[in-house]
Specification:
353 residues, alpha/beta, three-stranded mixed β-sheet, 12 helices, 12 strands, binds nicotinamide-adenine-dinucleotide, binds thymidine-5'-diphosphate
Amino acid sequence: MSKTIIITGGAGFIGSHVVRLFVTKYPDYKIINLDALTYAGNLENLRDIENAPNYIFEKADILDKDALERIFKLYQPDGVIHLAAESHVDRSIASPLDFVYTNVIGTVNLLNTAKHFWKDNFEGKRFYHVSTDEVYGALGDTGFFTEETKYDPHSPYSASKASSDHFVRAYHDTYGLPIVVSNCSNNYGPNHFPEKLIPLFINNIITKKSLPVYGDGLYTRDWLFVKDHAIAIDLVFHKGKNGDTYNIGGFNEWKNIDLVKLLCSQMDKKLGNAPGTSEQLITYIKDRPGHDRRYAIDASKINKELGWKPSVTFEEGLSQTIDWYLQNEEWLKHVTSGEYKRYYEEQYKGEEG
Ligand code: NAD
Ligand code: TYD
């Protein structure tokens, strides 16, 4: 059955992989990529599919109610997959209000618009909110986040995402809006903006800058290849139960320092460096305030109910990711000019780098 779907944040890291998957897998769907093109949005991420007949780009800010109304009126969507967000913890520490505006108020704007346009008939409609495992807070050495874990956000980023999750569920409970939510662990892969750990360190190894590890480097994250997240989003959008939440994770925990050493060794091989060359760039720097010690997702619900599991190992996914960055140095150069330089200097000032 044909559908019209608005994907918000489709020019960003995860959004671009979701847009590509939907545009190529569902030629009879109309996919509208709604994105404000902030520093994190980049239409170069979608060059290969931008001329597809079922793809449309709409530059719009989710804070702009009139723009949302115009786009809903024009396309009459059946579904929304909402990924647009401010997504970087360190930026949220520097500018929390930006996160309240986009992640909380922007999400409520989008909910209001969907409710308004769909109110006569919710049948066949779906508002899918893409969220993060960071809403659950931090784990100690053991345990996993399940869909029942109590929310306990610590950073302005995770607090804003937690708030948006609550609003999405409240619109389901209060107005009957058909919704589904997923909370995913750390993603990695091609097109990741080089402010996050893995692409930042790949870029710094290429440009021979220091690798700034926060605190003792023993913080743990559960990493998932972005294309596997996109596949999970496709499944949850089409088969997830109305009103439900699905946790998505990689079954793949790494302490930051172990991950960085693996990255260094893969990069040394690919760059033809002597073993140990890139590790010499590792520099321990002051910790991130409110730094969550460990995230780990129990993804057994989506596995049992929807049959999803990650398809690539971390070593394989990381190797593909590094290859993409080495083959796309122009992309890296474009995104690391201008605003990025100012961000980098401010974020890492006083540290070597
Ligand atoms: P990203 O920062 O790479 O991309 C965000 C996109 O949203 C950009 O294209 C940007 O232009 C757009 N955007 C930002 N503000 C907007 C606004 N006001 N109006 C319209 N568009 C706007 O983010 P990402 O890493 O791709 O994350 C996408 C979603 O997935 C986010 O909601 C994030 O919370 C969630 N998530 C991310 C991860 C991760 O590891 N990156 C993990 C779990 C969940
Ligand atoms: P990040 O990629 O920012 O994702 P998140 O904070 O959403 O998990 O960071 C991943 C981990 O890497 C986190 O523990 C913080 C750490 N980190 C560093 O040690 N140095 C850095 O320069 C960055 C950006 C992150």
